[in-house]
Amino acid sequence: MAKWGMVFDLRRCIGCNACTVACKQENSLPYGVFFTKTLSEEVGAYPNTTRTYIPTICNHCEDAPCQRVCPTGATYTRADGIVLVDGDKCIGCGSCVVACPYDQRTLLEPEMLTRGLFRNGELTPFEQQGYKRFTAGTATKCTFCHERVDAGLQPACVATCPTEARIFGDLDDPDSKVRRLIQEHRGRQPMPEKNTNPKVFYID
Amino acid sequence: MRNAEGKIHVWDASDNRARLWDDPDLKELALEGTYRVDGIECRPAFQRFKDILADCTPQQTERVTTVPAATVQRIAREFAKAARIGSFIEIEGCLLPLRPAAYNYYRGAQGHKFSAMANHSFKLVNFLVGAIDAPGGHVGVTLDDWKEDIRGGTGEIRPGENGMMQAAPHQLHPEVPFSYPPNETHLAGYFPLGVDPGHLSQYTLARPEAFGLDYRPEALLMCHANPLWNLPGSRQRLYDIMRSLRFVVAVDILPNESNEWADIILPCHDLLESWNMIMIEPPHHEGPCLRQPATPPLYDTRSEEEIFYEISERLGILEAWNGILNGWNGFHLEPELMLEPGRRYTDREIAERKGLLWNGKDLEWYIEHGHAVTPRRPEKWYRPWEGMRLHFYLEDIVRVRDELMRNMEAADVAIRHEWEWYDYQPLPTPALDPVHEEPPEFDLYAVTFKDIQINFGETLSNPWIDDIVFKDPVHTAVLLNSATGRGKGLADGDVIRIESPYGSVVGRVALSQGVHPEAVCISNALTRIATQHTGMRHGGGSFNDLLPANLRHTDACSGQPETVAKVRLTKLASLPAEVVAGNSAYRPRRVH
Questions:
Q1: A7, β-bridge pairs
Q2: Are B363 and B438 in the same domain?
Q3: Is the domain covering A4-203 a CATH 3.30.70.20 domain?
Q4: Are residues B365 and B457 in the same domain?
């Protein structure tokens, strides 16, 4: 059984947000809901200035605080390491949103799923189809595009990234690209002090 | 220097005498020096260029650009070294010069007065190291095969006189002939080398008598166009033009600043609802890509093809319309693909013909394969002009200038006395852009910029793009250098009026270390002013209002308008009510 993880190559990210749009499209995300974000920061002083970009997603932590605090077992970890939320079990208590140190969870407010993105507010056919996957009042987050992964595809953000700054693969496979990149570039997990053991690594 | 037959003289440094360029006895071309040929003193073009550069020292460049002379010199050295002059590479059996260095540039560098000279000077840098169309170098856009035989041969590479490549100035359409009174309000017929200067319509229509206009436009047809947003100049003047029109019709999928003036909007299919066959952007690859409907039309819309066929039929020009489509798409190259004069065709039929023209494959093949895109052959991708000489000294520009001058004089065009004749130069000169000569109280340069997500700004009405862009501080405030801002008593969040000699906009300030001390940077995301399209956020006014739309700030050679404005800043107490009302870029929004 694979243990899925992702590597962000910070040398390659150009902050284009193609990943963000691909994610929103793949997952029919309502306005204001993100499964991935690219943070940017201005660094240096004029004239030696640049912008740095840091992509972020749910880290699918090995020891996921969101899962620990979930009172109903709605948040669970699949055998392949993907952390998911069962919308039928989630009661929308918001504990996971607070517990996630990475700010990667969103509570779906009912109006997000009933009001369309276009002006008259009617749901377009795309939204009608896409919003079926969500349950109003529950928590949601990045799923590593598990349906795609189960079908042998890459997550949408990875498939879209024009610079190959996102690399997805099996962390347990010593020959996988993610393992090689983590080893060669001393991949770092976000906020290691939280002891969550993320399955997302950053290299630069 | 030419002989009586028009053949070019060169100087043979070996025999110390002038020879014709194709003289088999020519031994050594002189690049430098001053000589006498037929009693006339002359210099090789390279010497002329070198003489011009004597007035363009790094120190002088520093005074205008603030880039330190030492940096200019360092980059020049690094560039020349990186070009690896003398190196070769073999690609698919072709031995080619390898020049892994290039001066690459886009419209930001060209959208100015003297843009033709700027463009030429950039190109000459590549020229000097041999990086024109060489692997690793500046590979130009030789257009696709179709255009060699269609649209007036606009993309054709063919021999010209004196062993040189034939100059083909227009990529988009054949040259618009000179006319007086001008047939075009934007004076395209007066720009034989340039792009269509759409911004000049407001200049000519503001004083039509000066341009000899013996008519006034009464109708406007726009197809996916938004001139009221994207043209430089005064919005008020553009609005006056719109008010003067008797009938405005627009073909579009989204409301925008321009089509909200339309008497009739003909809504067309979305890209996901229609057929089209589009040539992939050359030069790296070539071949058509099929766009096919992902969904049936959601609303009562039509394809562009159906709309224009309907209009053509009602106007009684169906035959002419099919003739235009045959010529534009190249169907005339394959008689069996020719559109019949009296018939209407669907978007699907037109798409299929384009595919058949390219590789003989029908639409079913394209539906299965998606596209017929292949990498270009090396001989087409690299040095497609092999065997011809490239133009270093652009004599064509001078000839075109002289012909235009003759035409204007013969027709007694009054505006010729105001025409910017200096803009036509065979070699770039160190002329100063008039934007630098605005009154000194306009002490900063305002520029606009776009980001990857907002290529043409139209994408801002896409909720996914909106959700990203308006969370980015780069796109939610006017950017000002931190030290400059503090020096003017400005801090993050302050509201300012940005005023040029031609117009003004407002914005909220964000101080940045990433901005030049003399610049004000306004994101494209803050320039929309659409009112009917409430899905589109409006900013603090149109950046284009800051820009002039006149001859003085238009490159007469290239047709490019100025895209930078000198401005001054005034601190305001708050954002004007009209800016924060409704669908403002300055207001947070939860639901689109």
A1: A167, A201
A2: no
A3: yes
A4: no
Q: Comparing C-alpha atoms, which of B525, B446, B558, B461 is closest to residue B115?
A: B558
CA A1 to chain B, closest CA, distance in angstroms equals 35
Distance separating alpha carbons of residues B190 and B181, to the nearest angstrom = 11
For residue B295, what is the domain's CATH number? 3.40.50.740
Domain span at residue B31?
Answer: 9-43
Report the domain count for chain B. Answer: 3
Of A34, A46, A111, nearest to B481 by CB-CB distance is A46
Residue B247: inside a domain, yes or no? yes
Does residue B339 lie in a domain region? Answer: yes
Is residue B224 domain-shared with residue B371, that is, in the same domain? yes
CATH of the domain at B472: 2.40.40.20
Give the burial string for B446-485 (b: 16+ CB within 10 Å, else e): bbbebbebbeebbbbbbbbbbbbbbebebbbbbbbbbebb
Q: How far apart are CA B162 and CA B139, in angstroms?
A: 24
- Give, for all 592 residues of chain B, the pLDDT tens digit: 999 999 999 999 999 999 999 999 999 999 999 999 989 999 999 999 999 999 899 999 999 999 999 999 999 999 999 999 999 999 999 999 999 999 988 888 889 999 999 999 999 999 999 999 999 999 876 655 555 566 666 667 888 999 998 887 766 777 899 999 999 999 999 999 888 899 999 999 999 999 999 999 999 999 999 999 999 999 999 999 999 999 999 999 988 999 999 999 999 999 999 999 998 876 778 889 999 999 999 899 999 999 999 999 999 999 999 999 998 888 988 999 999 999 999 999 999 999 999 999 999 999 999 999 998 888 888 888 889 999 999 999 999 999 999 999 999 999 999 999 999 999 999 999 999 999 999 999 999 998 888 877 778 888 899 899 988 889 999 999 999 999 999 999 999 999 999 999 999 999 999 999 999 999 999 999 877 777 788 899 999 999 999 999 999 999 999 999 999 999 999 999 888 877 888 876 654 4
How many Å lie between the alpha carbon of B473 and the closest alpha carbon of chain A?
A: 9
The answer to the question of residue B440 being in a domain is yes
CA-derived radius of gyration, chain B: 26
Q: Do A45 and B453 touch (CB under 8 A)?
A: no
Residues of chain A found within 8 Å of residue B467, distances taken between Cβ atoms: 24, 31-32, 34
In a domain, B385, yes or no: no
User: Distance between CA B388 and CA B162 in Å, rounded?
Assistant: 9
pTM of the model as a whole: 0.92
- Claim to verify: residue B369 and residue B231 sit in the same structural domain: yes
Residues constituting chain A: 204
